[in-house]
Amino acid sequence: MAMTFPNDRVRADEEPAAASGVMVQRIVDGDRAAEAELVARYARGVRLIISRASSDRSAIDDLCQETFRITLEKVRRGDVRDPSRLAGFICSLARNLVVDHFRRTHELRASPSFQTRRIRRRIRWTCCWLENVRPRRGRSLPSLVQNAIDRYC
Fold first, then answer.
1. How many Cα atoms are found within 13 Å in the side-chain-facing hemisphere of 151?
2. How far is it, in rounded angstroms, from Cα 75 to Cα 86?
3. Which end of the chain has the lower number of beta carbons within 10 A, N or C?
4. Residue 137 Rama label (left phi>0; alpha psi -120 to 50; beta)
5. Alpha-carbon distance 153 to 147, whole Å?
6. Which one, of 25, 32, 34, lies nearest residue 84 by Cα?
């Protein structure tokens, strides 16, 4: 049963099944106002779900935008099986995107890219090479370092 609030507003997690079904049908029919209504209705809850996992505002904004982009794509294609459970669908999608985001972020930190590994190898090699090199007359160690970096990085 839906709870009503001032101005007859309905909480998103307790909305009547018929209202979400009608909204989904309007979106499928191409009604842009229904899309804006969906975003306005669920934006606060999605932002809350995502902000519980991250305090990075740009990540929160990106994940909110991605949640609604995917939601609208799926609704337009008719991939939402049960329109009466739209709120649960959106919440699950937001949680899954948060998990995926942190999984990818962790993998990037744990496994540097090929380019980064290659640069690190070159710097290590250059440092080993410099340990065995004695500066010649007229060449300082900083100039040798700069030449090595220019040549190998």
1. 9
2. 9
3. N
4. beta
5. 10
6. 25
